[in-house]
Design a protein that fits this description.
This protein is an alpha+beta fold. It has helices at residues 2-16, 46-53, 101-115; strands at 21-23, 30-32, 39-41, 58-60, 64-68, 83-89, 92-99. It has a five-stranded antiparallel β-sheet, with helices on both faces. Strands 2-3 form a two-stranded antiparallel ribbon.
């Protein structure tokens, strides 16, 4: 659990390094898909999110879902904000963030490389 918390903190830090649209629990809101009325809002259950958006592109444990190639309504395409990050607490959405996928994917690739089994070197 500590590793997941650490990885989530790193992911948030990386995502904050680029322009992003953040919606926190202090300002309850909804993020709509650019090309439809599909939306995700604070307080939604996991089941409701998966019904609206389908399965996540990637997960960090059970509480952090990533949806790549997501375009939010009102977010300019030139801003490269193409990933929706959804955080659950007690099976309810508590954090929504639209961010650039590049630093997120780079961070996840580095973490996967660190976890990959080491191969025995030839003698």
């Amino acid at each position: 659990m500590k590793k997941l918390t650490f990885l989530s903190a790193l992911l948030f830090a990386a995502a904050q390094g680029v322009a992003a649209q953040t919606i926190t629990t202090e300002t309850p809101s909804t993020i709509f898909s650019e090309d439809s009325d599909v939306s995700v809002a604070h307080g939604m259950s996991r089941e409701a999110v998966s019904f609206m958006l389908g399965l996540p592109s990637e997960t960090l444990g059970t509480n952090v879902w990533l949806f790549y190639n997501f375009r939010g309504r009102g977010v300019a395409a030139a801003e490269n904000l193409d990933t929706l990050l959804v955080v659950f607490v007690d099976d309810r959405v508590t954090t929504l963030r639209v961010c650039d996928s590049r630093p997120v994917r780079e961070l996840l690739a580095k973490q996967k490389a660190k976890r990959a089994p080491k191969t025995a070197s030839a003698k």
